[in-house]
Each structure stands twice: as C-alpha cells, then as structure tokens.
Amino acid sequence: MNTFLLFVNILGLLLLIGVLYTMHRKGISFSKRVFTGLGLGILFGFILHIAYGAESEVLAKSVSWFNIVGTGYVKLLQMIVVPLVFISILGAFTKVTIGKNFGKMAGMILGILVGTTAIAAIIGISSSLLFGLDASEIIQGEAEAARGLSLEERSATMADKALPDQILDLLPANPFLDFTGARPTSTIGVVIFAAFLGFAYLALTRRDKENADRVKKGIDAIYSLIMGVVRIVLRLTPYGILAIISKTVATSDFAAIYSLGKFVLASYVALLVMFIIHLVIITISGLNPLTYVKKTAEALLFAFSSRSSAGTLPLTIKTQTDRLGVPDGIANFSGSFGLSIGQNGCAGVYPAMLAVMIAPTVGQNPLEPTFLITLIAIVAVSSFGVAGVGGGATFAAILVLSALNLPIALAGLLISVEPLIDMGRTALNVSGSMTAGVATARVTGELNQDIYNDSIEKQSIEAS
C-alpha cells in the first residue's frame, strides 16, 4: 500500500511539472511560470500534509524523491556560483567598468551592507520589545533541548575572533582551495583573487597591449560559456520552486508554528519593516521602488523557497544586470559580498531578536541603553563572514549571544519554526545585496536607468 501511495505522490509531482512545461511550450512568460510553480507547490504540499501528516513514512519517502527536482536544482545553482563570481568580476575589469571607481564602489557596497545590518538589528530589537517576547515563556521539549545542547557544543568549539582576525580570514591564502568552497569565506576569497587578477590585467594593458588583448578574448569567451550554463540552469527555476515549496508545506509542523506564533509574527513584522527600509533606500536613490519590487520578485521568491542565499546568487546577479541596469562588476561584488557580509535577515534581525528575548532570563534589562548600543555594535561587527557558513543565522546568533554572555542553549527553543522564519530571512538577505548594488551603481553614475525603467515583459532573466 505504501509503495502505491508513494507512486501516486511522485506521479502527482510529475503531472504538475508537466503543467509548467506545457506553459513553457505555449510561450507563457517566465514570471508567470515561476508564480504558478509557487501556487501549485503550496496547494500540492498542503494536500500531502492533510493526507499523511508531517511525520508519515510515506511522505518522508515521497519528499526524498521530490528532492531530486528541488534540492537538485539548488545544487545546480550552487555549482555555478564560484565560476560565475570569478569570471564575471574578472570580465568586468576587461570591460574597464570598475577600474577607476573600484575603491569607491567596494566601500559603498560594504558600507550599505553593514549599515543596513545595524538598522536591521534596531528593527529586530524593536519588534521583540513591541511583541513582548520572552524566552522563558517558551515550552522546551526534547527536540528543543537537543538543539540547545548542540548549540552549546558548537559554541565551545568556536574561538571568539577579534575583528582583525575576521578580516584576515577573508584573504585567500590558497585561492584554489577557495574555489572548492572549503572555507566559510571562500566566496569572498574568490572575489579578492579575481580582483587582483583584474588589476594585473589593467597593468598589462599599459605595458603589453598584444598579450592583454589575448587575455581579454580568453576571458570574454569563458564568460560567454559560463553565462550559457547559467541560462540553462535558470530555465529550471519554476520546476525547482514547485518541488521545494511542496516539500516545505508538506513537512511543516503547523502545531509548532501556532504555538510559537507570536515569535513568527514578530519576526515577519521585523523582516517586512526592513524590506521597506530597502525600498526607502531605492527611493532616496531617485528610483521607483515599485519597479524594484516587480523586477526582483522572482529572485526573492526563489530565495524564500530555497532558503539559500548562495543558491540564489545567479538569479541575484542576473536580476541586477538584466533588469535593474547594474553593471557586471557592481552586481557581482554586491551579490558576492552579500553572501558573507551584512546579511540583514540572518546576521541582523535574528540575533538581535534572540538577544532581547533571552536577556530577561538572566536578569538583564533589555531596555538598558548600554546593552542596546553594545548589541547593535556586536551585530554589525559580527556580520563579517558569518552568513557564508551553512546555517549562518545560527552561527551569527552564537557569536552575538556569546559576546553578550547570554545562554546560547535557549536559542534552540525555536527549532520547530526555524525553517519558516529562515525563508523570510533569506529573501531579505538577497534584497539587501541587490539594494546595495542598485544604490551603489546609482551613486557612481553607472546605473543604466533605461534598463531599470524598461518593461519587465522585455527582460526575461531566463533567456537573456
């Protein structure tokens, strides 16, 4: 019987994939197929949840098959992250798009990423206080206790690093090791290595024009090849979102979400307010925020569904360059730095909310000005290199709570709603990266406003 039900579930997913493929064959726009995939995934996942329950064996086996499409798609995106970052940044130097403004561009991107993370911390603090969140009110079960113990053990193995040590960790001692993604800051290491090669190319153009031309042709050819791979993978986006969201809804613990509803609500209020701050920055830059929302919707939707900032990077970069008019160099720097520095959701809102929740359990007044100022500063500084690690929000929380001498184990109380909250956090992280790219391009005068203001119907990131 279980085998028959498993077959029915897999067949159901395949039929929905067939619907999306038929839409593709009929020429229906990429955006509509993406949102259709989301809607079908929610509906299919809810049906499976009602039919089997989140813990059933049949559902677990079904999800393992769904992962071939969903997790497989994310892995394909992750496959092209490092090659895309490397060749795009190097290619930007061959087009001389960032040579003169490199220092200003990099400084602005970092300033916006870290500055918005500090603002995100303030918003997270405010939301916790507004909703009166208190960790002592949360009931701790076996899963929560195990999670808390795991966090304490992880914290014990982490050496607290001073800011200079964190900066040193960003430098690529072995760039070939960073190409394998072996370090938490590998993406930043690849960015730095590509930038050094880029500056070497600019120097070569001044003293050996003939060899410089050969290098440029080679880089341009490899760039075209990598972008061809990106386009192939991005065409799979509607199917990936369908499978990912089906799994998420089907396996969600709705009872736990209900019992921790106040924290979930407070989290999403904070995330929404921070997203509005992003739109304010876009508006201050002299651009239409509604245009930004429309053109980034697909990338943010995938980030929300996949819970992977790294997996979303190809979409993040393509959205900036093809829809928002951001030059390649700025788009790649903001997207790449945004993976490991200043993630507004994971490194900003979340650790700040936890700290304010947990502080009363040890007699600390969360309204004390010294505590609040210290918390905001620690959140901003600790955001360097944190979110590049798998489970970046947890890593950020450990750093912040440890620095404030707050009990780390209490962070495990939220394990049952972590996936739901992480969806919103990841979308906010990606929005922060794109906001930094757009604002920087606007200030440096390199933003193509014709592309930014052009109709979205003419700008499919799938095939451009």
TrEMBL record:
Report keywords, A-Z. Amino-acid transport, Membrane, Transmembrane, Transmembrane helix, Transport
Q: Which residues cross the membrane?
A: 6-22, 34-52, 72-93, 105-125, 185-204, 225-245, 265-287, 371-389, 395-415
Q: Which SUPFAM superfamilies match?
A: Proton glutamate symport protein
What subcellular compartments does it reside in?
Answer: Membrane
Superkingdom of the organism of origin: Bacteria
Broad class of where this protein is predominantly found: membrane
Topology term for the membrane: Multi-pass membrane protein
Give a single Pfam family match: SDF
Report the InterPro entries cross-referenced here: Na-dicarboxylate_symporter (IPR001991), Na:dicarbo_symporter_sf (IPR036458)
Report if keyword Transmembrane is assigned.
Answer: yes
Protein family per UniProt: Belongs to the dicarboxylate/amino acid:cation symporter (DAACS) (TC 2.A.23) family.
Q: What's the name of the protein? A: L-cystine uptake protein TcyP
Q: What is the originating organism of this protein?
A: Sporosarcina quadrami
Organism phylogeny = Bacteria, Bacillati, Bacillota, Bacilli, Bacillales
